[in-house]
Amino acid sequence: MFPQERRGTTDRRRSHFSVRRIGCIDEAHALAATACQDVLGQGLDGQRAMLQPALSFFTWRTLVREAGLQPLHAVNTMVGAIQGAT
Predict the structure, then answer these.
(1) Judgement on whether residues 59 and 83 belong to the same structural domain of the protein
(2) pLDDT tens for residues 24-80?
(3) Same domain flag for 3 and 22
(4) Same structural domain for residues 27 and 53?
(5) Are 46 and 86 spatial neighbours (Cβ–Cβ below 8 Å)?
(6) Spatial distance between the Cα atoms of 36 and 5, rounded to a whole number of angstroms
(7) Which residue of 9, 27, 50, 57 shows the fewest CB atoms closer than 10 Å?
């Protein structure tokens, strides 16, 4: 086998390993998010549906970066959204 072919195989293995690690991280993140929703959602009925967007990175990025809210105002906004949900 030529050195280039061996290097390509090693690169593919390394790449595959990285993809698997990212998959594990994604799975761990999903489990943590579910656990957070379970804990925070205790005692909430219809309001529980608002937890997922309230905990989403993309929601916070939108509120703070795009809408220009201060972090504390963003928190109060999401608390109000959860309290107002039925």
Answers:
(1) yes
(2) 777 777 778 788 888 888 888 888 888 889 988 999 999 999 999 999 999 999 999
(3) yes
(4) no
(5) yes
(6) 46
(7) 57
**Tokens in use for 66?**
């795009």
> Are 31 and 66 part of one and the same domain?
no
Tokens encoding 56: 């989403």
In this predicted structure, the answer to whether residue 9 has a pLDDT above a threshold of 80 is no
Is residue 36 domain-shared with residue 16, that is, in the same domain?
A: yes
Domain hosting residue 34, numbered range? 1-40
Q: How many domains does the chain have?
A: 2
The runs of H, that is alpha helices, within the chain are: 3-40, 51-55, 57-61, 71-84
What does the pLDDT average to over 11-16? 60
Banded model confidence at residue 10, pLDDT cuts 50, 70, 90: low
- Whether 50 and 85 have beta carbons less than 8 Å apart is answered as yes
Question: pTM value?
Answer: 0.58
